[in-house]
């Protein structure tokens, strides 16, 4: 009787899935392309330099949404990409930023740090286990009974681990010191193609000393910014600074060539897209600023980066066409939806706002708390616009955490440069409003702090612990989402979608379950 009921349930489930899904075959290959800091306005401004095989091919032949929104504060390459591939906000998936402050160890560390796993071609210890929910790659692996091959290649570990997920056959990133393609022993299988490349003369370890970044085309064509100070024939030699050369290389367009090269090797090996179950290839590219650009505000380097990225996208599409076929491949392209702009003000210019010094604010707040609760060091750390209190001290002194948080917030919000202060108690138990919910989406218990500081736009954050400073900006960056390939009807949709809607829609196309924390809607144009 139990077997009969099980069979009926299985038949009903399959019938329901087939009835819900559009006509057409399930793709043989999924290619997930994430482009860190891709800007839609730059695609429009620079398109006169592009060819017809890259971005223009995607934009004319794909389903294009004009903008994607991340509904939590301060997205970066780790929190944004994890949101894309889990279909959930950081409050569920647990990756709130590229790095986090560990209260127990009293130090900053990678959000993907895992002391239980060693590195392969790296000394860093990483794993995808800090992602607390499933990813689209995990769900594909489950649905295929472990038969789908899943690979991810990215400049940085967080990007590779988030896009590859827990069930990847391999997730690889470029190691910051050696330039090798590194991974973690969390993944038990080794991909021979990657090992062979790492030991070859073509490895970045052996080639970086000969790489010089010069303009790819005539400088006269890089005319998108009328405010460029001068038309300089830039030249950046990556063999010059041995200590920092890999980090700088990963801010250049040549890192995109490294990613494409590995994708091409995988595709031409014939191991992907050749079986009944779909395979999955996740690639992360870079489209952000180069910190040593001679004109930071309106650089020729960023225009060259887009020209070269367009070339790499075209090369990738051509190889997919010849190896698997674009008709057999579902490709989706998503931006991380933020832009790390290094703004340079003209000398002598006075702007609205001022300088916000986190260490001074922390010291003043602690003095205020001393006056209220006694002479103790109540604050453990200011980190990434968050205040962490000494929870154990509060417990020992039997001080009500919610009350202390509220008093601290009321004190800090009076500080110059502070727009608002949200407490963790408000986010978890307080009255609902849109701003509190926005910060709640970016909060994960045990990772995030006690207070979140919203700073006023235009203020410069000056941290005495580091030589870096940055100016607060809250303006929106237009970031497109593109679906292309298998059974995709070309359309341009002038609407903003949420980042959590991307992978439920991909799952729908693959006829598999969405990731387990994903509650975003399926995009109606993909029905």
Percent of residues in beta strands: 15-25%
Give the % helix. 25-40%
Number of helices: 18
- Give the biggest beta sheet: 10 strands, mixed
Topology:
Blueprint: H1 2-20, E1 29-36, H2 40-46, H3 55-61, E2 63-69, H4 77-86, H5 90-93, E3 99-102, E4 107-110, E5 119-120, H6 136-143, E6 150-154, H7 157-164, E7 170-174, E8 181-184, H8 192-198, H9 204-207, E9 212-213, E10 236-237, H10 245-249, H11 254-268, E11 279-286, H12 300-323, E12 329-335, E13 355-356, H13 358-373, E14 379-383, E15 386-389, H14 391-396, H15 401-412, E16 418-423, H16 424-429, H17 434-441, E17 451-455, E18 460-462, E19 469-471, E20 481-485, E21 491-498, H18 502-510
Helix pairs in contact: 4-7, 11-12, 13-15
What can you see in these coordinates?
The protein has 527 residues and is an alpha/beta fold. It folds into 2 domains: 2-343 and 482-526, 3-Layer(aba) Sandwich (Alkaline Phosphatase, subunit A), CATH 3.40.720.10; 355-471, Gyrase A, domain 2 (2-Layer Sandwich). Helix content is 33%, strand content 19%. The chain has 18 helices and 21 strands. The chain has helices spanning 2-20, 40-46, 55-61, 77-86, 90-93, 136-143, 157-164, 192-198, 204-207, 245-249, 254-268, 300-323, 358-373, 391-396, 401-412, 424-429, 434-441, 502-510, and strands at residues 29-36, 63-69, 99-102, 107-110, 119-120, 150-154, 170-174, 181-184, 212-213, 236-237, 279-286, 329-335, 355-356, 379-383, 386-389, 418-423, 451-455, 460-462, 469-471, 481-485, 491-498. The strands form 5 sheets. The protein has a 10-stranded mixed sheet, sandwiched between helices. Strands 14-15-17-16 form a 4-stranded antiparallel sheet. Strands 13-18-19 form a 3-stranded mixed sheet. A hairpin with a 6-residue loop joins strand 18 and strand 19 (469-471). The two termini are 37 Å apart. Residues 1-21 have low confidence and may be disordered.
């Amino acid at each position: 009787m139990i077997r009969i009921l099980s069979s009926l349930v299985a038949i009903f489930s399959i019938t329901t899935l087939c009835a819900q899904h559009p006509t057409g075959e399930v793709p043989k290959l999924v290619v997930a392309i994430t482009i860190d800091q891709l800007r839609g306005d730059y695609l429009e401004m620079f398109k006169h330099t592009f060819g017809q095989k890259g971005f223009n091919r995607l934009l004319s032949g794909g389903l294009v949404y004009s903008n994607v929104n991340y509904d939590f504060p301060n997205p970066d390459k780790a929190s944004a990409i994890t949101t894309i591939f889990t279909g959930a906000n950081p409050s569920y998936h647990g990756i709130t930023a590229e790095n986090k402050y560990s209260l127990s160890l009293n130090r900053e560390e990678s959000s993907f740090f895992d002391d239980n796993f060693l590195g392969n071609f790296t000394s860093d210890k990483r794993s995808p286990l800090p992602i607390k929910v499933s990813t689209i790659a995990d769900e594909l692996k489950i649905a295929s009974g472990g038969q789908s091959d899943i690979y991810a290649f990215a400049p940085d570990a967080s990007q590779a681990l988030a896009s590859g997920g827990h069930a990847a056959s391999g997730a690889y990133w470029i190691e910051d010191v050696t330039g090798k393609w590194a991974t973690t022993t969390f993944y038990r299988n080794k991909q021979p193609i990657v090992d062979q490349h790492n030991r070859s003369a073509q490895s970045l370890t052996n080639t970086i000393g000969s790489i010089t970044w010069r303009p790819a085309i005539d400088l006269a064509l890089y005319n998108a910014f009328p405010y460029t100070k001068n038309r300089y024939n830039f030249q950046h030699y990556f063999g010059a600074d041995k200590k920092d050369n890999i980090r700088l290389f990963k801010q250049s367009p040549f890192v995109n060539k490294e990613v494409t090269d590995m994708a091409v090797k995988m595709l031409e090996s014939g191991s992907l897209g050749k079986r009944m179950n779909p395979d999955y290839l996740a690639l992360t590219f870079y489209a952000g600023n180069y910190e040593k650009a001679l004109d930071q505000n309106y650089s020729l380097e960023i225009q060259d980066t887009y020209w070269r990225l367009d070339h790499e996208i075209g090369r990738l599409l051509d190889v997919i066409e010849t190896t698997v076929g674009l008709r057999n491949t579902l490709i989706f392209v998503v931006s991380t939806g933020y832009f790390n702009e290094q703004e340079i003000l003209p000398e002598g210019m006075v702007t609205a706002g001022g300088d916000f010094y986190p260490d001074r604010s922390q010291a003043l707040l602690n003095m205020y708390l001393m006056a209220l609760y006694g002479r103790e060091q109540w604050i453990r750390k200011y980190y990434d616009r968050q205040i962490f209190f000494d929870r154990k001290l509060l417990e020992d002194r039997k001080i009500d955490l919610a009350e202390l948080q509220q008093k601290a917030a009321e004190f800090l919000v009076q500080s110059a440069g502070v727009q608002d202060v949200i407490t963790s108690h408000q986010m978890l138990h307080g009255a609902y409003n849109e701003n509190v919910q926005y910060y709640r989406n970016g909060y994960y218990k045990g990772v995030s702090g006690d207070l979140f500081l919203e700073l006023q736009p235009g203020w410069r954050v000056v941290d005495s612990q580091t030589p870096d400073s940055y100016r607060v900006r809250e303006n929106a960056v237009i970031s497109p989402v593109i679906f292309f390939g298998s059974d995709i009807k070309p359309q341009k949709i002038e609407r903003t979608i949420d980042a959590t809607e991307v992978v439920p829609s991909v799952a729908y196309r693959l006829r598999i379950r969405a990731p387990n924390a994903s509650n975003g809607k399926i995009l109606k144009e993909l029905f």
